[in-house]
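Review form for a predicted model. The reviewer records the input and the model, then writes brief findings.
Reviewer: anonymous (R2)
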Amino acid sequence: QVQLVESGGGLVQAGGSLRLSCVASGHTFSNYAMGWFRQAPGKEREFVAVINWSGTMPQYADSVKGRFTISRENAKNTVNLQMNSLKPEDSAVYYCALDTGSGLSKRPQYYDYWGQGTQVTVSS
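Model under review:
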């Protein structure tokens, strides 16, 4: 059974930074792409970033490009999301997800396993 556990969320002022982490267990983590998504109240879950198995091909949503950085540490079964220059519109529950398919998808329906989410709130 795969388990994904996010951490690092919290309350931060606009312009500040947070670093989210997601630790995976129960699967061969290093074989698969990992993604970050977010969902604000009343909105659909949206793509934030994805990284391939080796960490060499990160991709980002246009809304976070240049501010967020996704990375992974396969030896620690961990994927990270460094978030800088945060804006109030970045406020949401952030989820990490694992894709056992071809990888690098930006659509949540292609991901097989999800964490429980961590709340990020950016105050203006």
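Findings: The radius of gyration is 13 Å.
Further findings: The chain has a mean pLDDT of 95.
Recommendation: see findings above.
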